[in-house]
Specification:
This protein is α/β, with parallel strands linked by helices. It is built from 10 helices and 15 strands. It folds into 2 domains: 150 residues, Medium-chain alcohol dehydrogenases, catalytic domain (Quinone Oxidoreductase, Chain A, domain 1); 141 residues, NAD(P)-binding Rossmann-like Domain (Rossmann fold, 3-Layer(aba) Sandwich), CATH 3.40.50.720.
């Protein structure tokens, strides 16, 4: 089969499309024919070598895929050949024609969700759900501010929050992005500058501030976030590209909280509950993953350049069957 391989850490161009052996499912494993693979920012950090845990070389990048089951190993009873599925994690990498997965990494893909959308579920929707409910304690009636709301995690967070009864303010760096944020159900869409203005946020929240902030770029925004929060407000740090200096006294009088999150921090039982709720939202249409661009698998390097250099509009996905 064709798969993207990385033989050395470095720039996006270290990713090469190569022929490698087809995977074979051992007991408890599933082989998925990949129709679309999601591209996530974390994969660019790993490929560059700038990540805490690095895979053994050579490796195939990617965790999120959608397609159909090709074969299953002994002990797998929940899926059979031909089933439409999506993955949240793989054993062999998702940037490939086929992906080997543990049975705990595979979930049914509802009929109303395309393969491209399915490739935008695993990490983006899982991260949004865990940030909102697992770490952020989001409740109906609260106000949520999402920095970077037009990206894969951001659009999922807006939709899941609206479904849960929160009022959402989202930011994006472009007019197109702000239009996309409003289309996902946000009440207000602001520029990044506006979303960091305490007076602007208080004007939109009756003078209180935001109850919860999802922070995609903490090294830029975290110090400013503390001035945007309502009493007992929370910031969930989803992403950061470096250190940041804050004044801890700002957290004291209003009893503010800063918490970090990683999708991998959810234990097995919590992951099952999380994806069960995500599937319910997919089936009833309240969660609609946004797959903005589809590129051939051979253009994985271009996808990595785009995801880090441009304003995000939903998800970039790679399509193995496309030339």
């Amino acid at each position: 089969m064709l798969a993207v391989q990385v033989h050395e850490f470095g720039a996006p161009e270290v990713m090469r499309l190569e022929e490698i052996p087809d995977p074979v499912p051992a007991p408890g494993r599933i082989v998925v024919k990949v129709e679309a693979a999601g591209v996530n920012p974390v994969e660019t950090y790993v490929r560059s070598g700038a990540y805490a845990r690095l895979p053994k070389l050579p490796y195939t990048p990617g965790a999120d895929a959608a397609g159909t089951v090709l074969s299953v190993g002994d002990g797998v009873t929940a899926f059979r050949a031909g089933d439409r599925v999506y993955t949240s994690g793989t054993l062999s990498g998702a940037y490939a024609a086929q992906a080997l997965c543990d049975r705990t990494q595979v979930f049914p893909l509802p009929a109303n969700v395309s393969f491209a959308q399915g490739a935008a579920i695993g990490i983006p929707c899982g991260t949004a759900w865990r940030a909102l409910f697992g770490r952020g304690g989001a409740k109906a009636g609260e106000t949520l501010l999402v920095h970077g709301a037009s990206g894969g995690v951001g659009t999922a967070a807006v939709q899941l929050a609206v479904r849960a009864g929160l009022e959402v303010i989202g930011s994006s760096g472009t007019e197109r992005g702000r239009k996309l944020v409003l289309e996902q159900g946000a009440k207000h869409a602001l520029s990044h500058e506006e979303s960091n203005d305490p007076e602007r946020i208080r004007a939109l929240t009756g003078g209180r501030g935001a109850d919860l902030i999802l922070e995609m770029l903490a090294n830029v925004n975290l110090a400013k976030d503390l001035a945007l929060l309502a009493p007992r407000g929370r910031v969930v740090v989803i992403g950061s590209r470096g250190p940041v200096e804050i004044d801890p006294r700002m957290t004291m009088a209003s009893e503010l909280s800063i918490v970090g999150m990683m999708l991998a921090g959810a234990d097995a039982d919590k992951r099952v509950a999380m994806y069960r709720d995500i599937n319910e939202a997919l089936e009833n249409g309240s969660l609609r993953p946004v797959a903005d661009r589809e590129l051939p698998l051979a253009q994985a390097a271009s996808a990595h350049h785009e995801i880090m250099e441009s304003n995000a509009f939903g998800k970039i996905v790679l399509v193995p069957g496309r030339g």
